[in-house]
Amino acid sequence: xxxxxxxxxxxxxxxxxxxxxxxxxxxxxxxxxxxxxxxxxxxxxxxxxxxxxxxxxxxxxxxxxxxxxxxxxxxxxxxxxxxxxxxxxxxxxxxxxxxxxxxxxxxxxxxxxxxxxxxxxxxxxxxxxxxxxxxxxxxxxxxxxxxxxxxxxxxxxxxxxxxxxxxxxxxxxxxxxxxxxxxxxxxxxxxxxxxxxxxxxxxxxxxxxxxxxxxxxxxxxxxxxxxxxxxxxxxxxxxxxxxxxxxxxxxxxxxxxxxxxxxxxxxxxxxxxxxxxxxxxxxxxxxxxxxxxxxxxxxxxxxxxxxxxxxxxxxxxxxxxxxxxxxxxxxxxxxxxxxxxxxxxxxxxxxxxxxxxxxxxxxxxxxxxxxxxxxxxxxxxxxxxxxxxxxxxxxxxxxxxxxxxxxxxxxxxxxxxxxxxxxxxxxxxxxxxxxxxxxxxxxxxxxxxxxxxxxxxxxxxxxxxxxxxxxxxxxxxxxxxxxxxxxxxxxxxxxxxxxxxxxxxxxxxxxxxxxxxxxxxxxxxxxxxxxxxxxxxxxxxxxxxxxxxxxxxxxxxxxxxxxxxxxxxxxxxxxxxxxxxxxxxxxxxxxxxxxxxxxxxxxxxxxxx
Length: 609
Prior knowledge:
Elements: E1 2-3, H1 35-38, H2 43-61, E2 78-79, E3 84-87, E4 93-96, H3 98-104, H4 111-124, E5 126-131, H5 136-161, E6 183-186, H6 188-200, E7 206-210, H7 213-225, E8 233-234, H8 244-247, H9 252-262, E9 267-273, H10 278-287, E10 290-293, H11 298-309, E11 314-319, H12 322-337, H13 342-348, H14 355-363, E12 365-367, H15 381-390, E13 395-399, H16 404-414, E14 419-422, H17 424-441, E15 447-454, H18 460-474, E16 479-484, E17 492-494, E18 508-510, H19 535-546, H20 551-558, E19 570-571, E20 574-575, H21 576-593, H22 598-608
Parallel strand pairs: 5-6, 5-7, 7-8, 9-10, 9-11, 11-12, 13-14, 13-15, 15-16
Antiparallel strand pairs: 1-2, 3-4, 3-16, 17-18, 19-20
Helix pairs in contact: 4-5, 4-19, 5-18, 6-7, 10-21, 12-14, 12-16, 17-18
C-alpha cells in the first residue's frame, strides 16, 4: 500500500536546500527518494541511520530483527495502487502519487544550471562517470548535459563544414566542444571503461566518479591499468560511501567460506560479483581461482564455466549477493521444472547445455549465505501482494538482487516475454524493446504499457529519456509507458511541522521509515549510500578543481580521492592491486572470447589436483 499525502507538491528549487531533520517525525533519518530532501541526513546521524538499517536487515534475515514494527498507515490514507510516472508522446509526463511527483520534479533541470556546469566541464577537461542509481535531481542535470553537448557538437560540425573554425556561437571565446561525451551514466563496470575513453579520446584531466567507494576504487584501478594512472579520480564526498553488499564480503565469515570452498574435493571456481571492493577481489584471488561477474553476464559465466570444466566436476562458489545466487538457482530450477526441451536450452541458454548438464550445474552451485544489498531487500511481502493483486496486466522487471518472491514473479513473466530478470541494463533494454514494438505496430488505438520497476528508483531518469526518444523518433502518438514504483505503506513518514523550503506544510513525505530507501518491511528502493552523491557536491568538486593551484584546494581535493587500501601491499608475495584486478581481467577475456581463459582453467585444475 502507498500513502498519498493530503497536500503533495513538487520541490522545484535546485541547488542548496534541504528539509531539516527536525521537521521529520518518527526515526528522523528517513526522507523521500530524492537527495534534495535527503541531503539533510549528514554526518554522524546519517552514518548511524545506515548502520542501524543494515544491521536490522541482516537480523531480520535470520529472524532476529530488533527493529520496531513500522507504523501502519491510517485506513483512509491507504490505496491499492503504487505511485507511477506515465510517459506520453511529445514529452508529456504525468506523475501519480507524491513519490512519483518527487521523481518527476527534477527531470527537466533549469537551463542555466546545465549550461554553467557544461562550460566548466569543457574548460577544465573534467569527465563525470555516474551510476544509474544517482538521485533524480543529479541525473536530470547529467542527462541534460549529455544532450546539450551533442547539440553543441552538431552545431560545431555544421559550422566547420561551412568553413568556420568550429566555434559555437553560444560558447564564445573559441571553446571547442569535445567529440567524446563528458558525462556517462551506466552500470558499475562500464563506468571504468567510460572513464578510460574520456581520458584517451576526450583528453579528460580529471574524473568525477559518482557512486559508492568501491566504484571509484575500481574506476581508478582500471584507468591505471590502461595508462591513465596520473588522472585523478574524485569522489563526491570526503566521507566513506559504503555499500552493505560489498562490505558483507570483507569480514572473516566470507574468507572462511572461501577457504572451506577451496578445500573441496571438486574443482572450485569463485564467481564474485563486480560490486565488491578491490581488496575483496585480491583476497579472494589469493585463496581460490576467482573471476568477477556482472548481473548481466553472471548466467553466461556460470554456464560456460560448467561446460568448460565439467558440470559434475566443477563447484561454482557464488558470492557475496545471496539473493542473486539463490535467484540463479531458482532460474535453473524453472528451466528444469517447466520442461524446457534440449533444443530450447541450446538456443536460449547455451549451445553445449541440455537438461542433464543444467541439473548438474544447479546442484553444484555453492551460494554464500550471508550477503545482501539493503536496497533490493526492500521488496517485501506487502509489495509482492500488491503486484500480484493489482498489476496482473503489467510487465514485471526485477534485478537479480531482489528477494525471491519479487524475483519469482518477474521470472515467471519472463518465460512468456512479459517480464525480465537481470541487470539494470537488461531492465532498460527490455522496456525500450517493448515500447519500440508497440510504437512500430502503428495502431490507431491508445495503448499504455505498464512496467513494474523492480530495482532502484534512480533508474527512472534513464528510462524516461529512452522512452521519450523512442516515441519522438517513431512519431508515435498512441503509445504511453507507465513506470510503476513498488512502494509499500511503510515507506512514508509524517511531517508535523512547517518545512524550511518556503513555509508550506507537507503532511506526508514519501520515503522510508527505516532510512532513505531502507525499510526492511518493503519500500521505495532508493539507495542511501548512492544518495550521498548530490548536485551540490559536484559543483563543490568542480569549483575546487578550478582553483586547485592553491594549496588549500589541493589538500581538500586529496580527501576526495578513492580509498587506497591496497597501495604498497602484497598478499602471498604478490602485488595486491594486481591480484585485485586479475578477476576483472579474466571476466573481460570471457566477455571478448566467450570462453574462460586457459590460464584461469589451469589454475582451477591445478588447485584441485
